[in-house]
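Hello,

Our lab assistant flagged a job as stuck in the queue for most of the afternoon. It eventually completed. Since we weren't sure the result was trustworthy after the delay, we are filing this so someone can double-check. Below is the sequence as submitted and the structure that was eventually returned. Let us know if re-running is recommended.
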Amino acid sequence: MRRLGPARRARPDRALSTARAAIDLRRKLAELDRDAHLPELAALLSKYATMLAEDGWKADALTVSEEAVTLCRELAARDPDPHLPGLAMSVGNHALRLAESDQRSRAPIAANEAVTLCREARGWSAVVLQAGPDGRPAAHRVAADRDNGPLLLVGDADLIVHDRALLAFGE
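-- returned structure --
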């Protein structure tokens, strides 16, 4: 899916169908050898959820994001060290999907979990989701501040998680 960038801008429907085909193939491979193919399936689903959200398919993006989080949880439960960063990013992205949906009230819970997971993933950077110049949320990684803890901004920065404190403002 890394090669879909230019094609996606030119033909979003084709990029989405190509991504869906890659997910279907990886899903079949995971049925044959779950250990070998589950990490890539989880990553593809997370990226696909972001693509769907960016193209306006918010409800579908939320469903796909939930599946990605479930798979990342399975991976992290089996082998935390290599998979906690992926789980943290997946839960952070899911918080963004929730913030964009009619389930907005669940976003702070997921955001808090993402911050906690960042802490657990020793030495990993925090997840920051902010509104980009076009008003759409954009994900960024920033170095975790060991003294103050990571910072997570969700959606258009109206939900902020710093350490374990949640600040909500806006609307």
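-- support follow-up --
The delay was a queue issue, not a problem with the job. The result is valid. The helical segments are 5-10, 12-32, 34-54, 58-78, 80-99, 107-120. The two ends are 36 Å apart (CA to CA).
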